[in-house]
Queue: 2 jobs
Job 1
Amino acid sequence: MNFSTSEENYIKAIYHLQHSTELVTTNELAAELQTKAASVTDMLKKLKAKKILNYEPYQGFTLSEEGRKVALGIVRKHRLWEYFLVQNLGFGWDEVHEIAEELEHINSPILIEKLDAYLSFPKFDPHGDPIPDINGKMEVTKQINLIDLELNREAEVSAVGSQSTELLELLRHKNIGIGTVLEVIRKFSFDNSIEIRIKNFPPFSISQQLAQTLFVNPVYGSTIVGSIS
Amino acid sequence: MNFSTSEENYIKAIYHLQHSTELVTTNELAAELQTKAASVTDMLKKLKAKKILNYEPYQGFTLSEEGRKVALGIVRKHRLWEYFLVQNLGFGWDEVHEIAEELEHINSPILIEKLDAYLSFPKFDPHGDPIPDINGKMEVTKQINLIDLELNREAEVSAVGSQSTELLELLRHKNIGIGTVLEVIRKFSFDNSIEIRIKNFPPFSISQQLAQTLFVNPVYGSTIVGSIS
DNA sequence: ATTAAAATTTAGACAAATCTAAATATTTTT
DNA sequence: AAAAATATTTAGATTTGTCTAAATTTTAAT
Ligand SMILES: [Mn+2]
Ligand SMILES: [Mn+2]
Ligand SMILES: [Mn+2]
Ligand SMILES: [Mn+2]
């Protein structure tokens, strides 16, 4: 089965929304795609007819098994192209999302397999998100939100929770990227800001909003103040 | 000004048709795009309104100066992507046209400039066609049609006149590609077939139809039987 | 349990791109 | 120069994707 660019954008958006809330609602999807609820309803009917969706009027919806496979295929294309743009063409990680948003709709399975091989089968995109393989399988990372990282525990930034230009611009300014090793020095309850230190740099503080979009992997064996042995 | 995929396909097709006949006609364009004359007329009005076309009803049409620039931009994208697909991803030169037909519509000037640099600014695509630079300038080759090549004059295949799968499949079977050095041994007036020899291989003959789609550059200083000095 | 608010769907309209069939203009043949 | 053939345009319909406004359903509040 083939899908239009518009259908693909809906399918991918539903896939992403399902990660937070199991059952997706019409308004959520309309907000995500910056369109109107009525347009969403129209597309829901269409996708249900194509057996991509489990959907009953007024009851919310989820992707069918088939729909999930389609979504993973689009995510795979998106993230492989992003990897190519950053690693090969020299784009910054904050410049590639819009372009990948177009490239993900190029329809050529053989192209994607050759691209994947050319890139040596990368497992993560420039934002730390896992790239599904041709069967839809991808690495699961046991990453945690920076908010939940214990004090004085070194951790490596593994992913960011949004691709907005504004966020990526801020991260660039603060010299935080995928792979950055940092630790949390203090947490301030007044505004939930936290003070962090990047390895070999002076500490500085970041807002709660920023901390919430950062995901990290604690570095194995790093010093935990007060821990025994 | 921005253009839809459909508008871009029309603009590029008109550009290509103008190479053979200065003034393009509605039916020619309809045949080229495999659509109906009525659809073409609709689009002609639209493109004229956007000042892309010189067009008066019933009188044929040509691209305006602006239209030519737009066309060259699309051709540039198409050929750069083809070059990438063959040189970097390992596609055969007969497999890339359809994919480039999609990729040429990705809208990101910076992407194309970075791709061009990544490929080291190639001057010709895998079919021997010149790649316009960012200003629309491209190398002009003094290539001639194989039909017009004098006997026993070595020449290098520089371009093919069509990207049809059928043609490229036949060329592959006969081991003819861009860069192949060959000479014409005999011409048969019965069916206008010609006998050629690829360097270091036994001679064989090709049909008139095939010879007409091949363009060659005579090799400088090659032996011309019967020529003086 | 009603009422009010919010979410969702339906109805009807619109723009883009296409098509078929009919009308009109141009070119070619007699 | 008229008739026939061909090319092109117009008229009206269709599909896809979108929108606004109205109707309906669900959820939350009194
Ligand atoms: Mn997209
Ligand atoms: Mn990404
Ligand atoms: Mn195209
Ligand atoms: Mn080409």
Note: Chain B touches chain A through 18 residues (CB under 8 Å).
Job 2
Amino acid sequence: MGEMPVSKTAAKREARICEILSCAEKHFSNKGFHGAGISGIAADCGISVGHLYHYFGSKDELILAVVKSEMGRQDESITAFEDLSPENLRLEMAELTTAIFSTDAEPFRTVLNFEILAEAQRNPEVAALLQQQDTQMRRRFVTILRRAGIDDPETRTELIFTIFSGLSARALRHPEQERAALLEVIKDVILKILGDKQVASGALSA
Amino acid sequence: MGEMPVSKTAAKREARICEILSCAEKHFSNKGFHGAGISGIAADCGISVGHLYHYFGSKDELILAVVKSEMGRQDESITAFEDLSPENLRLEMAELTTAIFSTDAEPFRTVLNFEILAEAQRNPEVAALLQQQDTQMRRRFVTILRRAGIDDPETRTELIFTIFSGLSARALRHPEQERAALLEVIKDVILKILGDKQVASGALSA
Amino acid sequence: MGEMPVSKTAAKREARICEILSCAEKHFSNKGFHGAGISGIAADCGISVGHLYHYFGSKDELILAVVKSEMGRQDESITAFEDLSPENLRLEMAELTTAIFSTDAEPFRTVLNFEILAEAQRNPEVAALLQQQDTQMRRRFVTILRRAGIDDPETRTELIFTIFSGLSARALRHPEQERAALLEVIKDVILKILGDKQVASGALSA
Amino acid sequence: MGEMPVSKTAAKREARICEILSCAEKHFSNKGFHGAGISGIAADCGISVGHLYHYFGSKDELILAVVKSEMGRQDESITAFEDLSPENLRLEMAELTTAIFSTDAEPFRTVLNFEILAEAQRNPEVAALLQQQDTQMRRRFVTILRRAGIDDPETRTELIFTIFSGLSARALRHPEQERAALLEVIKDVILKILGDKQVASGALSA
DNA sequence: TATGAATGAGCATTCATTCAT
DNA sequence: TATGAATGAATGCTCATTCAT
């Protein structure tokens, strides 16, 4: 069961690719997609430039692969919320509020996050990848909410994704310390969104 | 009255600087800070490379200046909400929800927005500028809300800024057409936030 | 008596030229003739680039002027040895041996010394200046020796100039501390050269 | 016997490096370290600019390598004086006096000589190299003198190095034709220095 | 006399990429 | 699979110099 590598070489190849991706991610995080250079990445991997081109035909291809892997990771981290009881789901999501200001690797915030969004504005392939991945993440999240018996899961998903995306930007624009209050409010909002029967005009009102 | 240029040369100089900034902004938008080249910008301005360096000592200086001007523009566009009656304020803010998906120049979304956020992650000067500007914008918005007689304006400001920041990311990640429903929800949320006496656990609940 | 400036403006002009030369000398010393830039020199003088060109038509002209002034200074410092009694002359010259390892401004050693020699190898104008100045210095020194009643002053001058030139190079190649002994030897050699009736094959032998 | 290159590629690489060094030396001699450009050197070698950087990481590195090779050559040319009989040593050294005014490649004079000395004044790495190499050359020369049975070889070495260094400067400052007499005197001095039992206050006196 | 805007060639350096081995 | 030699265009930046004012 599961896809096991066809041969030993194939396994080695995949490992090598993984290593390159991880090196590339590091460099891209530090210097940006355009600031990082292929040769630096190759050197960091301990392979030659020419050999890197054996695995990735161009820098754009490498960028795309990194973006894809990054999003794979985001997607994966949604798994943590599957199979939670409705109540635990609410609590865990509320906790994310705090995490987003500190951790760099969770669904709504990655170091490469804004780099990717910026790139998406000018690279259609990246944009397509981004949107396709987002669609999938929303779909999974909707399923999670539905399984938890929450009404109108699509809208609530959108709301939550919007708020968390916003938070990740605020972590950069507003890193001061008085934000503790904000976090409390947001937590409450999240709990509301996941707890109320109706979402907005109804649920949020008296 | 009004600030008139001290001298003719100074005026010319300022005009030239403005032109460079505008060209640079265009190039940076299209190719990113690191993708765009000084020589391209200079050529587009109709001046020589060397001469551009007469006005900006380095590319970083130019980037910083563009970021600063960009944020000045964001800040300015808040002015539109000053002097509005409380009710109009609510409606106008709700309208922004739609605008953020279409317009490229308003307080919470600019083409350069993510480029700047990405740059802020590795360039401390940009980060400082970003935070300082955000502080000022929040202060102004708080004043607007307070003048409109809205309770706990600080928290509501944070909430609104968070939501709009999130929306601008969603415009990229989720540009599909079924989002009309989301917009309606967000609009309602904004109206709630600006209309309720209490903010969260209280106001959003029944 | 002596040449007084024709007018106040002329005096001012000369002062300005002096200032430029002194700034240029500083920059050339620090970065070399080719490493230093006109604009840096102008800035250091507190004048505009264009204005510097009012006084010196080109960088080469400025270099030449600095070389000339440098050599003027070397020449001047020979004056110190005129009017010395024969015995004092010997002692003073012997003292120079020590000075050459520490001072940067005396006839046989200047910071710009090697820069000038290197430039002379490729710039004929500098070479000509160098040789002409050296001729004049030798002539003056010969006169000094002759007045002191020293035999064959031409040859002794050559010998002394050679030794001091050599010392200035050794100050760079051999700046260690065990050189005290060398200095004593050289001192003695100088004293010999200036004291013996015959110069070499005779005088230096038993 | 002999050092044979480890592999064919390594040999090729070394040959290429040699070629670059020789081209660089030529350019540096003609225009000075700072006057010569990398692109000119690369073009002269028949390689691309980028490729030159494959071998030398920066211009400074290249300068340093040229200086090093230059000094290697100076050091090597001392070999000619090893294994000479005492008498032949005296004569050969005396002959050098003439050579220094004509040849460009011998221990005490190279075209790049003053360029290097000038650079040493501002580039500590070059200075260090210069001093280290000089120390070694002195050491070797001392051994030569000692083997020839000459007393106090250290002091005599210093004296000779000083005189020859001085001569190489005089070749530039005093290239006129009446110097034949000087040469004779210097020759005698050298012979004395290498022939007398005592060096200075004693040997040079009656 | 004095400014500083303006130029464009030149600088050292890095880039993504190709290719023979 | 793996190397690293090789390219040449492009990078950000500085240069000496000119010129209108």
Note: Residues 9, 12-13, 16, 47-51, 54 of chain B lie near DNA strand E (CB under 10 Å from a C1').
